[in-house]
Amino acid sequence: MRKPVIGITMGDPAGIGPEITLKALQNKEVMKICNPVVIGSFTLLQQELQNPLIKLHKISKVEEADFAWDTINILDPVNENFDLNIKGKISARAGKAAFHYIKTAIELALEKKLDSVATGPIHKEAIKAAKLDFIGHTEMFGQLTGSHDPLTVFEVHNLRIFFLSRHVSLRQCCDLVTKTRVLDYIERSITALTSLGLGKGTFAVAGLNPHSSDNGLFGHEEQDEIIPAIEAAKAMGYKVIGPIGADSVFHLAMKNNWDGVLSLYHDQGHIAAKTLDFDRTISLTLGLPFLRTSVDHGTAFDIAGKGLAQCISMEEAIRKAVQYTRVSN
Fold first, then answer.
1. Domain-wise residue ranges, the chain
2. pTM of the full predicted structure?
């Protein structure tokens, strides 16, 4: 079986992305399942590498890659001479470079040179300092691939969480809980799960208010928007349940092995996934022309450059990129 070519963006040069990328690719079990191409700063990765048995191979195109187990292929589209002095500091220079690593990965994936992309962490303030009009990774991938409103999914163990909204204020996210939007996300989420070979059973929708409002005692969104969306989805043949109180829906999803849960705002699902297993939570972006997976943690400037970062989430992101790329292809 052909091993998929996975593009790995190292993230912000000032963060732990370069370190966890190198550490993940020194795991022979990871190297056995894919042909990785790292997109990032060659000079910085040279300085971060601590293992004399591993070689870094600088390439200008994917076709030049040497996929030996002891070789890490680096494609550097920026050719900035970053060094360890940049670690832990917000800078426009680092933000701009991180964006170009992502842009290059997207271009290569659209050209079918990469089967999927796994991304390292970026820093939103560095992106802003670089005067780039993006909130985060998902927005970059959506705009640069021409994909409308891609789906964000967290996966940890057998729990998969979709998000109705992402980086908006708590007040704004409540306004986004509409029948039309909830129904659209139910349909697209179940379709996405099916494409990954996972859409076989029940899909749940979390409640917005405490106890899903207890029939209107604590809010109107469940009665006015969420329940009508669920009923409409059922009428279309989807196996959907809810709304289920957010204090129990994720536990029940794990226990009953439901296909997925629709979280109605950012922190509702983030807290559940990261409390369950912070290190092994990964993010997937679906609805693109290719699969994107990601670590689900930040740049960790406080430990960047100190050799202390754990690479478990990066390893998981690469494994899931391989697993779901094989299913969808």
1. 1-147+289-329, 151-286
2. 0.92
